[in-house]
Amino acid sequence: MSTTKLFFAGSGGQGIILMGQMVTYAAMYEDYETMYYPSYGPEMRGGTANCTVIVSDKPVSSPLIYDADCVVAMNLPSLLKFESMVKPGGVLLINSSIIDRKATREDIRVLEVPTMEIAKEIGNPRGANMVMLGAAIRATGVVSQEKIEKVMREKAFTGKKAPTIPLNIVAFESFKI
Amino acid sequence: MSEKVLMKGNEAFAEAAIRGGCRFYFGYPITPQSEIPEFMSRELPKRGGTFLQAESELGAINMAYGAGAAGGSVFISSSSPGIALMQEGMSFLCSAEVPLVALNVSRGGPGIGGIQPGQADYNQVTRGGGNGDYKIPVLAPASIQEAVDMLYEAAELARKWQNPIMVFADGIMGQMMEPVILPEQKPFTDASDIRAERPWAITGYGDDDTTKNVVKSLRMQPDDLERHVEYLFEKYDRAEKELVRVETQDIEDADIVLVAFGTVARIAREAIEILAERGIKAGLIRPITLWPFPYDAFDGIGDRTKVVISAELSMGQLMQDVKLGVGKRLPVKLINRTGGMIPTSLELADRAEKIYKEVK
């Protein structure tokens, strides 16, 4: 690995921030250099929330990206706005449960992930974002599942949420690439 | 050594200020730094400090003046329009020689402007937005770790120089998260130690003390005021020699030299890689102190260089200092965005390449 740039976009409540922060924590546990930058302010209200995560083996330079190795589009406005951001040869993950449209580019890898159907099927209807996170992590190989599970235990699902970890691991593993 | 933790910039800044010994925080919320007063309201009381939400930034800076004059180690933070409101107080503190750690997490202006990142407070923080002749050392970090290290050190620096110290970050740095190593907590100064540590502070007459300390900025006699200003500038002359900090990269044999600080310096580093792929060798001068400005670093630019480019989030404010550093030796050009807009590394590289082709 040299540098992997990921971009998560969707609407509030879809777990955009959580997904981004989980990758960042996992990258730190892997001893990589890493940076997380969320959109903030009025652009978040009513529209799209998004965040950038950069993982690298050297200090992260620009926190702003114009080209991503991986874009996760959790809703239609995100797909329309950020499909063009994927690097040629990069990967675009589409939340096909609610996005009724195909990608237009042919120079990238496209994965349509029916996050909500899968989450329901495995008995974890609130785990759609973990389904997507698993798909994105396996598509990019940016961090290991072991470190993501460590993040679940130590940061994401602590206290009252701890009992949800086994189901969230199932969700994380459920979309086969 | 402490473990790495992942922290949001604003929370890391606040934690670093506490660990550096700042025991008092006065502030008023403003985006993009409201996490700082929020964090301080939660943390400081637990740790033996004092958090107070002022009625405005004006109130906050004057509380800082009062607590600082009494020997307290004070931290304040705000963002651009809030820092503007504090300028009168900054001038008072400089004249009265009261230490203070100040942080500007800046955003776009002028006026209330917007809430996205900016650097258009450059003149405000380096030239002084208040009245009279005074200077404030300004530290410009480019990563959360660097900001943490600066804020940790700032209380001691402010005490040593008996002057406010400003850390100038931007909205991106406040909102982003990066792994940081937090330094050890320095002990807070006890009230009983203030006289020994800050003999100028107003601590009240003790049982065995007849010296009277006065902390003031009013000096009605012109000759007295002139002497005071000259005394302050002897101090600032020393600071110009001792405090200046800069990072340079490949400026000895570069085709072009970029000058940028803070987040823009990070974007410039990536732009330099893009330019290298296009056969253009670019160097970087990153001022770490904005005052004192590292003018001497420009003497290190080699003969191969055709142009020096100031890359900034303002309309050429940084470029004025770059021109002072370069003199008439080389042309100085500007690449900027403003209003909260930020160039990507690709935009920076494209515009730098265009300028290079024009001057070559």
Order of helices and strands of chain B: EHEHEHEHHEHEHEHEHHEEHEEEHEH
- In CATH's first tier, which class of chain A applies? Alpha Beta
Terminal CA distance of chain B reads 50 Å
Oligomeric status of the shown chains? heterodimer
CATH topology of chain A, by name, is Pyruvate-ferredoxin Oxidoreductase, domain 3
Q: Tell me, rounded to a whole number, the average pLDDT of chain B.
A: 96
- Number of strand elements of chain A: 6
> What structural category do the secondary elements of chain A indicate?
alpha/beta
Structural class category of chain B: alpha/beta
Query: Could you say which overall geometry of chain A the principal axes of the C-alpha atoms support?
Result: globular
CATH superfamily of the largest domain in chain B, called what? Thiamin diphosphate (ThDP)-binding fold, Pyr/PP domains
- Strand percentage of chain B: 15-25%
Biggest β-sheet of chain B, characterized? 7 strands, mixed
User: What would CATH call the class of the largest domain in chain B?
Assistant: Alpha Beta
Annotation field: number of helices of chain B: 13
Q: What's the CATH architecture name of chain A? A: 3-Layer(aba) Sandwich
